[in-house]
Amino acid sequence: MKTGGRSRPLLRVRGGLVVVAAATAMLAAALSGPVAWATTAKPDLVVLSVSPPPQLVDPGMTFPVTVKVKNAGSAAAGRSTVGFFLSKDKLRGSDLPLSGKASVGRLRPGRTATVSAQVTIPKRTRHGDYHVLACADIARRVAESREVNNCRASSARLHVLGTSSYALIDKAVKAGTITEETALTDKVFASFGDSRLPSIYKGDDKGVIDSTILGQVRDEWSSLSAVTQAKLLPFFQLPMYQGSWMEPAAAPSAAPAARSSAGTVTATGPTPPCDKNVPTTDWAFVERSHVKVWWQKRYPGDHDRARAVADAIQKVIWPKLTGLMHKAPLLDGGSTIGCRGGDDRLDVVLALNGDAASYAQDYPNPGCKATPSYIVLNRGESRDTWAHEFMHAITWTYNVHAGCMNSAPPGGYLWWVEASAEWAVDYVYPGDQEEHTSALAFLMDPQKSLDTWLEGRLFQYGAYLFPFYLAGPRRAGASIVPAIWEATRTYDSAVAAIDHTVPGGFDKVWRRFTLYNWNKKPVDIYRRWDGLPYGAKVEAEPAYGAGNFFVDPLKVAHLAAHHVDFKNFAQGIRSGTFFNTFEGVGTGAATMALVKFKGKAWQQKDWTNTSKWDFCEPLQELVVVFSNASLSQSSVLQPSQSPSLSLRRTECQQRWAGTFSGSLDTASGQIHAEWSGNASYVLDGPGSSVAFFHIVGGSASATVSDSQCGSGSHTFDLTPPDYVTTFEGGAGNVEIRFDTGNYKVLAGHSDPSVLVCDYDYSLPWFLDTGSRPFANGQTTLAGTRNYTNSEGTTFHYEWNLTATTGPS
Fold first, then answer.
1. Residue 227 CB partners (closer than 8 Å, separation 6+)
2. Which of 776, 766, 710 is nearest to 738 (CA)?
3. Strand ranges across the sheet with 589-597
4. Neighbours of 274 (CB within 10 A)
């Protein structure tokens, strides 16, 4: 605090003695009234805002957090760090720390800084709802005027998912505690929030967007006992009719039987009886020309919600999706068939509570596919879920080529059913962004196959990013989605339908899609198209110094990818090499890269057919994406040696590339050899009076004529260090191999078992220009040279080369 004028020290030190300054003045002030004591100006760091976290996360998941930090004090603040926590109550206390921090530079008084960090949920986090708490100057390196106002919590909460009910039930089956049939029944109870579910199997089901369990029940219906059929049959009835799971009959009806033409009794599918073709008096509906929305009178507020659902479907969802798909939900025949809403319109029922998941279900007879359907909604769901389930009502109309629409994986169409329905949410309501939570779940598991089905989890919903990518900016190419659905009539899986519909198939688009899943500059297209803040999970080390760094283990399943991010390089790294052993490892293998040199723009590279990449300048960041576009579910690509990045503190050798040729003749006339080719060279080393260049790659052809040992010719690759080739020609057998820096020729008899010539000699697979080419900074090098060695062998060289710099 200042009282006016420039502040001055109250004590001065002279010659080691402390002298009281202006003592008389201070004494007079003390006698006349209170003293205004000067205070030191200090900074005060506060967090102004915290970005909304994703709604649902799994333990171990990583996501970005952006905060705005302000210096509200009266002095500049030095560099500081923002730390992050999970908090139940928004207050700093016994909170759970998150890995990941954000660095804040120096801040002058009144200035703000917006910074971001990638934070990770600890794997052992208990499920539940949390705020993200951000605290400025978490390391306490800045002396502030106030130290108790550094933290702020996100307004929205995230939910850390726990073990789902399905997972608990599956665990019990595996342990032998319950049978598969009991597990199926319990999963139905879990999906509908039925109180008959044993409490030990009640898990965290907030991650279940909608349920497909009734499809599994239908597929297994004929194998279920009569008791189980009686328990499950009411779930196939519309909720507002007597005999349904919500309006149970006095005595539940057993599954009906049908007689075949031969007069024997055969099991039918789950076709519930319609004992009374009138909804109970507990229900009412709101109607529009396309849809009837049913609501329960015991929840008076649902009347308004039913109107909102009806209007959204009638005015927005129906026209957008039927206009795109060129199909509408099939008429359900309710005007003639009992217990189907009383007319042919689509029935939507507000019935479910709690965590019970909404669903769109087919009617039996025909059922399975190419069938009318109805929608049952959780009363608390948003319009995004309404759009998701309506897309299901459309896709139920397709007569898929193989099996049923939602038969259990692997294979089939089920993952695509959910991915395209989640994509429809973005198509109908592009500004809502609820689908981003699903995208995060998908991006956090890039090593899982696109057609993976994880019951009770969000992965398959997040696969909507694939049609989102195909549709392009502003969803201009959205017609690709109905085209793929049309192809399901012909192909026995959604993957095959996509491969035959998308130009170039997976072989062309998969490598690009997995690269774009990085979703950071320079390929941050999801951010630019839709504001998606998340990117693919990557493998990375904290820092990289000189040495070799391996991508290990690298195993890429079909329609999956592996992302690696090399950054935080040590000072002094000047060159290096990336060895891409994934190149050519199998069908579908592709490698994409993003390269950022210091002070330069990002470069995008396709290394699918590149085994080695050299760089000769300071590297800032290197992102490598390995992908597998194979459609075969058994495909797993794994190189015999792991890809690696070799980092060096030394400068690169100068490279030259071009054509060369030469010949030699021995003094006796016994041997004549000629060679030519295309190659890359490096200078053997500075300081020599003669410039020798050795080959580091290329191809060549050679012809050897030996009057005593035979002759031969061959074209081969010049790739050190261990190239070996054997060929036959002329009168004998000639082997050319690499040995101690030169390609040796061993000449033998026409009968390989007889070695006539027991010597070898060197073809000079190096370039001897006879002079140093760098004195005047040449960028081209061409010429000829002839000379004779001490043994009388004459040599002739010709070359035409161009200097190359940077990565080869």
1. none
2. 766
3. 560-567, 619-628, 589-597, 603-606
4. 16
Q: Quick one: DSSP state of residue 654?
A: P
Hey, how many other C-beta atoms are within 10 angstroms of the C-beta on 542?
A: 6
Token representation of residue 118: 């990638």
450: phi then psi, degrees, rounded to nearest 5: -55, -40
Closest CA to 396 of 421, 379, 377: 421
Kindly state the tokens that stand for 101.
């921090």
Instruction: Specify whether the CB–CB gap between 750 and 710 falls below 8 A.
Output: yes
pLDDT of residue 797 exceeding 70? yes
**Beta bridge partners of residue 578, listed in sequence order:** 613, 645
Strand partners, 246: none
Nearest Cα to Cα of residue 241 among 204, 278, 271: 278
pLDDT level of residue 76 (50, 70, 90 thresholds): very high
Q: Is 718:677 a contact under the CB 8 Å cutoff?
A: yes
Cα separation, 747 vs 768, in Å, equals 25
Q: Which residues contact 306 (CB under 8 A, 6 or more apart)?
A: 284, 285, 286, 293, 294, 295, 350
pLDDT tens digits along 674-722: 878 887 766 544 433 344 555 667 777 777 777 776 666 767 666 554 3
Q: Are strands 346-352 and 373-378 parallel, antiparallel or unpaired?
A: parallel
Write down how long the chain is. Answer: 808
pLDDT digits (tens, 9 = 90+) for 453-463: 988 889 999 99
Distances (CA, A) of 419 to 28, 325, 481: 83, 15, 11
Residue 348 DSSP SS3 = strand
Of 221, 332, 212, nearest in space to 269 by CA? 221
